[in-house]
Amino acid sequence: MTNAQILAACRSNWEYRGIDDASMRDMLDELSAHLEDAEAAGRTAQDVIGGDVRTFAAAWARARTPLPRRVLRATAVGLYYAGCVLLAPYLFRWTTQLDVTPGTMAFWLVLATVTVAWELRRGMIGLRRSWAVALGAALPAGLLAAWSAGDAPLFTLPLWAPPLLLLPGLPYAVADLRARRRSTA
Amino acid sequence: MTKEAPATGDQRRTQLLRGVLDLCLLSLIEERPRYGFELAEALAAGGLEPVSDGSIYPLLARMERAGLISSYRAPSPTGGAPRKYYRLTDAGCAELGRGRADWLAFAGSAGRILTATTQSTGEHST
């Protein structure tokens, strides 16, 4: 594994484990400097991270931020993305109500689950490939659910629901934006 | 009931190091503020090489969260990007003092037992 691959794998792992942006930047800078120093001293990347980059990244994430804080952040950010995804059909169809069918529900649930699981397990294949893998699993799941359960809506979602989902993630989004500005200043 | 296999030399060494690595890091940081790579090098130079250099980072993060050490960024003497240096806090100093006393008492007791056993069985270490 190259240094860039190790850093990408760690970044992905930490993002999905609910590490905040400022902490992640700090950890990546520290790891990057250590990898460079180790390389200059004739040591390999494996000497630094051990045999498994995911185990290394997970151990550091657990030590850096307590689980309740990471779960809270990951949930809020997940809901934020769900809100963004849900808002799009309202805008495209210019409607105030959205029928959620079994097919749509299965598609998005499988897409989200596979994306998170894949990024946590692999975390080094890049966003596009990761989405391709998730789509490869979500499309059949959605079609299967539509075929077996029909097109009848499970429930109707009002327009106020997606903005409500965005709310818990907003403080985190603002904090990340501020941290990014501070680091570039 | 299952019986655990006896630890090999490497496993025992790893277990011993795990129990004392935080104190060694605190002690090295007490000497002067250091960054991660320097700590890994100092451990290796002292004959305590962890399984991987990076295994010190979770420990450093845990000690920083506990308020035993604090960190700051400063340029590296070797050049390149600024490094994250760790320094000891007052709480870290107190913890190191307690940890040192505990370790010396423990190592003394263990040493006495091991030495006494060696003498009574007539074994000689080379």
How would you sum up this structure, described in words?
The complex is a heterodimer of chains A (185) and B (126). Chain A has a two-stranded antiparallel sheet with strand order 1-2. Helix content of chain A is 77%, strand content 4%. Chain A has 185 residues and is mainly alpha-helical. Chain A is built from 9 helices and 2 strands. The two termini of chain A are 32 Å apart. Chain A folds into 2 domains: 3-65, no CATH class; 68-184, no CATH class. Chain B is mainly alpha-helical and 126 residues long. Chain B has one domain: Orthogonal Bundle (Arc Repressor Mutant, subunit A), CATH 1.10.10. Chain B has 4 helices and 3 strands; from the N terminus they run αβααββα. The longest helix of chain B is centred in the last third of the chain and has 32 residues, at 90-121. Chain B is elongated, with a radius of gyration of 18 Å. Chain B starts with 8 loop residues before the first helix and ends in a 5-residue tail after the last helix. The model of chain B has no long low-confidence stretch (mean pLDDT 86). The chains are: A mainly alpha (185), B mainly alpha (126). Chain A binds chain B through residues 26-27, 29-34, 36-38, 40-41, 43, 46-50, 56, 59-60, 62-64, and chain B through 35-37, 40-41, 51-55, 57-59, 61-62, 65, 76, 78, 80-81, 83-84.
Quick recap of the structure?
The complex is a heterodimer of chains A (185) and B (126). Chain A is mainly alpha-helical and 185 residues long.
Question: What attributes does this structure have?
Answer:
heterodimer; A: 185 residues; mainly alpha; two-stranded antiparallel sheet; 9 helices; 77% helix; B: 126 residues; Arc Repressor Mutant, subunit A; 3-stranded antiparallel β-sheet; 60% helix; elongated; Tscrpt_reg_PadR_N (chain B)
Strand content of chain B: 5-15%
Cα(first) to Cα(last) distance of chain A is 32 Å
Oligomer: heterodimer
- Helix count, DSSP H or I runs of 4 or more residues of chain B: 4
What is the total domain count of chain B? 1
Share of helix of chain A, binned: over 70%
By DSSP, the count of extended strands of chain B is 3
**Radius of gyration of chain A (Å):** 20 Å
What is the CATH architecture annotation of chain B? Orthogonal Bundle
* Sheet with the most strands: spatial strand order of chain A: 1-2
Q: What fraction, in percent, of the residue positions of chain B are helical?
A: 55-70%
CATH superfamily of chain B: Winged helix-like DNA-binding domain superfamily/Winged helix DNA-binding domain
Protein name (chain B): PadR family transcriptional regulator
InterPro entries (chain B): Metal_resp_DNA-bind_regulator, Tscrpt_reg_PadR_N, WH-like_DNA-bd_sf, WH_DNA-bd_sf
Pfam families (chain B): PadR
Organism (chain B): Streptomyces amritsarensis
